[in-house]
Amino acid sequence: MARMKFLCDADRCIECNACVTACKNEHEVPWGINRRRVVTINDGKPGERSVSMACMHCTDAPCAAVCPVNCFYTTADAVVLHSKDLCIGCGYCFYACPFGAPQYPKVGNFGSRGKMDKCTFCAGGPEADNSKEEYEKYGSNRLAEGKLPLCAEMCSTKSLLAGDSDVIAQIYKERVAKRGYGSGAWGWQTAYRESIAT
Amino acid sequence: MAKIFGYMRLIAGALALAFVVATAMPAAAQQPNSVNPTAASVKEQQLLQQLNKIEGRGTIPDVKSYTIEQPAGREWREFRTVTLKWIGGIAILGILALLTIYYLWHGTMCIESGRSGRKILRFNVFERFVHWLTGVTFVILGLTGLNITFGRSLLLPWMGAPAFSEWSEWTKFSHNYISFAFTTGVVLMFLMWVVRNLPTRADLEWFKAGGGMFGGEEPPAHKFNGGEKLIFWISMIGGGAVIVTGFLLLFPFYGTTVSGMELAQIVHSTVALLYVAAMFVHIYMGTIGVEGAFEAMADGNVDVNWAKERHRLWYDEEMQPGAAPGQAMRPAE
């Protein structure tokens, strides 16, 4: 099976936020929650770079390790998913996550968190593929339809790549070789303990 | 004439073009063949080394999403999944083992002169209310907290995922809401008993003699002996620490960041587990450890001989003429 990953080529990202919008629309993500966001580092200064970031679907995912109810699971495609039926909204995965991916709808009083929501790599949840229940809880399941995540598929500069690790790493390597520079695969060292040698 | 002007205009035009080309050429020659924009750009590993996190500016209202990478959660993960379990396991099982060994060796600490049949009020109804408010909420908070740390390893395998999640969700709500009652208890307990729990010279003597727990006479004590004062201060300092860190966690991002909450969770869980271990000693002493001690927190009255043996200085105070009303000796019912 494939080892699914995201790769954001920061030298191409133009901070158009279309990935953010596409994600919100595709999955009807509620107000206040963003499964993906674009952040500009050193904004307005020479050398600024924008990076589109979401759940990186880590190897040996920290969220899964710290979850008190063990609601996470990894699919055969190495996508890290979770069950909203089991999640108790404790917030521990947010403490552990290096990418700030888990988010919680605010429910009830104080800081009460609802069921955690995060990027699913457009792969839904534990319910039957593309069922109504799955869509309501996790959004659409494009992977089950043989499609890749929408954020990367419609990226205007093809900065954001999603797919099998070897394939997207190869695309990135070729780009770097051709244009002569590359600032690396952001987050890969943290998420997978490996980077792309260019 | 017109023809000459025409030639001159052509020459002038050619010269102008030559000038433009000539001035432009050196600039073009200075450009390297391949541009490397990343030479001056921000670099991931460099940013991580400097700050251990990467943040920038985003366009959505959620300010905390502007931090895109923060590997520090890994240390917290190690703490939660490994270190904390060892601390908690050793502290709780260690204390239980020590108490069992102590009980088997020493047995219950009896009233040596036997029961007198006369009783003296040790804790009034308000004191007992505050004690049990704190005590009952502590037990619930302790069990629901232990569930978050140990439930996945101990309960989940035999409860099954759906039942364990349902239970854990209830324990989360209980833990969050009961915290307010516990806080009230700790605050009232502090105000009510702090003066009586200030250390005195008698406590030093008490600790030197091991409180009579390892043979020998128990040195005379005031209303609270050295050991009880120790339990009081563990409850106040430990309670204060879990309350402050607990409320920080209950209100995410109110004055904290992710790393602040990681730290708060480390303090909260470590202190709480040591606190639970310490309370096992308190529960032991208040029940099977010392004969006649539980009565002080049941209906508030203790046997006079118990008071004489355990809290001689307090007993003498109470027996002084003009002692506070309601504190005097009364017959057993």
Account of the 3D structure:
The longest helix of chain A has 15 residues, at 165-179. Chain A has 198 residues and is an alpha+beta fold. In chain A, the strands form three sheets. Chain A has a two-stranded antiparallel ribbon with strand order 1-6. Chain A has a two-stranded antiparallel ribbon with strand order 2-3. Chain A has a single domain (4-192), classed as Alpha-Beta Plaits. In chain A, strand 2 (37-41) and strand 3 (49-53) form a beta hairpin. Chain A has seven helices and six strands, in the order E-H-E-E-H-E-E-H-H-H-E-H-H. Chain B has twelve helices and five strands. By secondary structure, chain B is mainly alpha-helical. Chain B is elongated and about 140 Å long. Chain B is 67% helix and 5% strand. Chain B has a single domain, classed as Up-down Bundle (Fumarate Reductase Cytochrome B subunit).
How would you sum up this structure in a few lines?
The complex is a heterodimer of chains A (198) and B (333). Chain A has helices at 18-27, 62-66, 92-96, 132-138, 150-153, 165-179, 188-192; strands at 4-8, 37-41, 49-53, 72-74, 80-82, 160-164.
Descriptors:
heterodimer, A: 198 residues, alpha+beta, two-stranded antiparallel sheet, B: 333 residues, mainly alpha, Fumarate Reductase Cytochrome B subunit, three-stranded antiparallel β-sheet, 12 helices
Let me know the number of strands of chain A: 6
Assembly state: heterodimer
CATH hierarchy, class of chain A: Alpha Beta
Mind telling me which CATH architecture of chain B this is?
Up-down Bundle
Could you report the average pLDDT of chain A, rounded to the nearest whole number?
93
Low-confidence regions of chain B: 26-32
**String of helices and strands of chain A:** EHEEHEEHHHEHH
By CATH, the architecture of chain A is named 2-Layer Sandwich
* CATH topology-level name of chain B: Fumarate Reductase Cytochrome B subunit
What fold name goes in the CATH topology slot of chain A? Alpha-Beta Plaits
